[in-house]
Amino acid sequence: MPTVSLTGVAPGTSIVNANVQDRQTGCQRTIAPIATVKPTVTFTGGNNFIFEGSDPTVTICNSEQVQGTPTQGTFSWSAATTSSNHPNISFNGSPSPYSTSSDVVTVTGDAPSSSLLDTTLTVGYSVNNQSAQTPATRTITIRLFKFLQQSGNIQVVPINGQGNPPKWGYISYVYYSIFTNPGGQQLLPGCSNISVYESVSLTNSNFPSTTVETGTGNTSQNAQVIDTLTIKADNPLPADFSASADQYLGVGGFIVRHNTLSWSQSGPSITNLGPTS
Amino acid sequence: MKTLATLSVLILLHPGGSIPGLRAQESTTPAKKDPFNQVVELVELKDETIFDEIARLNQAFDISISIEGILPAKGTVANPKFTARIEKQTISDLLTWLCALDTRYTWSRDGNMINLFPRMFLNDKNYFFNRLLPELRFQDARDSGDAAIDIVHRLGDPNEHLIFMGIGGTQSFAKPWTATFHDITVRQALNRIAQELGPTYGWQIGGTTNQRMIMFHYKLGARPNSKVIHENGCGIGFETIGTIAPSNYTGNRGEPGTDGTFPLFRESVPRESILFFESQLLTRPHSPRSSS
């Protein structure tokens, strides 16, 4: 049986006119089969994870992109999850039933995955009333910012009368790597500038309002939280200088670390009160 | 309008328009209206210091607050606690009411900054923060600590000292700062530093008379309804699967709250053992710092 291969240039249906001649009998027949051309769709951008929450500095990292061939079609996104936390998943802020038809969407989830890759994104594609035979699928993990792990020692830079006017004390830097659950996966470079929240309570230092917000920062290019702790004075610090504070650090809208900070004349020390996993 | 936006968020988060001990009136604050004339519908202290209420005020309104604590020679000062309530007061009237409760303190206004300080030093020209600087110049100042210590040096009094405590994003200016001021008090100079850090920034004085410490802040208090409950006395509730919840969360999850948001906590976690944190709903558009 003779076969021919056809290549479609645009989705839709066409009638293929063909003249077929039987070489043995010499009979000639005309046939007109209907050929259907189907579009295709694949994931071309984004990751196999998103971060839980709706902090705008986080959702910017939650972008997923597909490409349809040929272009000019419309996409239909949907999501399914087996997470026991039952996250509600939205595309571009719209929850189910989904109506997003663009190729690039921001995916948000309001609860984390309970296991790795337990959530499936499915994208259909249609052009000229023809739908992709196989939708694009991607399994993802909805990660929750969960805990920080101090990276290396505290870096203490002494200040011994430098500057004009001179100052004494120290500047110290604490580097934290960021970990997400499930799976305790470390946040890797690639998504920076995630909001970092910090508040401290100084209960034994005679500050009238004991709890203060110290301002919002952002994660570094190395996907770390860098906390700067400074003590500066117009004179050398007294030998008995001491202070302490309870510190809370948050990343992307989630508290991820509780410390007790203690300052002495020579530098700070940190007691990690968790979480640690 | 920014204030209104913030208030709207707070009211949205708190059905009935209330946050603990403070309820802001939703109505009619024109954009240009004096922020100190905004009306606070209800203020309630329940065995609390006036500073607890002032922190709530700072959280609810985009105003700056700085406090000079009363410093002991050593040890700690116990601030008196009050149980009292008052309704429908402007922020200005409310501050006066609070200072009538804790008569050790009085307040003054410097632009958008509220300064609370010990009443006994109100007219004491020798009090550190009342001292006058004929001229003060900051040249390419890069951080609040250096600028604060420059003020002490500028006084030229070997008996006056200041220790700067810098934590997180209260230290660096967005860009090097050059400014000259004339006939400015130490208090006003510190206010200018806070303002250079950003709107709503303020400062506090703590420590002792021998170790006077200054700390700048973005806002006093923790975010509204930020609530840290220690489990077994050893830390925050680690059983949470999320740490963001609307304040009207009642223990069910999977259903939206009345504000349309979804509680994020595992059903088995009691409300009391959850750490509330509503940062994404209250993310402030202020200058990001290079590090926290």
Would you give an account of this structure?
- Chain A has 1 helix and 23 strands.
- Chain A is mostly beta strands.
- In chain A, a hairpin with a 6-residue loop joins strand 2 and strand 3 (28-31).
- The mean pLDDT of chain A is 92.
- Chain B is an alpha/beta fold.
- In chain B, the strands form 3 sheets. A 6-stranded mixed beta sheet of chain B has the order 6-7-4-11-12-9, sandwiched between helices. Chain B has a 4-stranded antiparallel beta sheet with strand order 1-2-3-5. In chain B, strands 8-10 form a two-stranded antiparallel sheet.
- Chain B starts with a helix and ends in a 72-residue tail after the last strand.
- Classes of the chains: A mainly beta (277), B alpha/beta (292).
- At the A-B interface, helix 1, strand 15, strand 17, strand 18 and strand 19 of A face helix 2, helix 4, strand 9, strand 11 and strand 12 of B.
Looking at this protein, list some descriptive labels.
heterodimer; A: 277 residues; mainly beta; nine-stranded mixed sheet; six-stranded antiparallel sheet; 1 helix; 1% helix; rod-shaped; B: 292 residues; alpha/beta; six-stranded mixed sheet; disordered N terminus; disordered C terminus
SSE topology:
The complex is a heterodimer of chains A (277) and B (292).
Chain A: E1 12-15, E2 18-21, E3 28-31, E4 34-37, E5 40-45, E6 49-51, H1 56-59, E7 63-69, E8 74-81, E9 89-91, E10 104-109, E11 119-127, E12 130-131, E13 136-150, E14 155-162, E15 167-181, E16 185-186, E17 195-201, E18 211-213, E19 217-218, E20 224-233, E21 243-251, E22 254-263, E23 268-272
Parallel strand pairs in A: 6-13
Antiparallel strand pairs in A: 1-4, 2-3, 5-7, 7-10, 8-11, 9-10, 11-12, 11-13, 13-15, 14-15, 15-16, 15-20, 17-18, 17-19, 17-21, 21-22, 22-23
Chain B: H1 2-13, E1 18-19, E2 22-24, E3 39-48, H2 50-60, E4 64-68, E5 82-90, H3 91-101, E6 105-110, E7 113-118, E8 132-143, H4 144-155, E9 163-167, E10 172-185, H5 186-197, E11 202-207, E12 212-217, E13 219-220
Parallel strand pairs in B: 4-7, 4-11, 9-12
Antiparallel strand pairs in B: 1-2, 2-3, 3-5, 6-7, 8-10, 11-12
Helix pairs in contact in B: 4-5
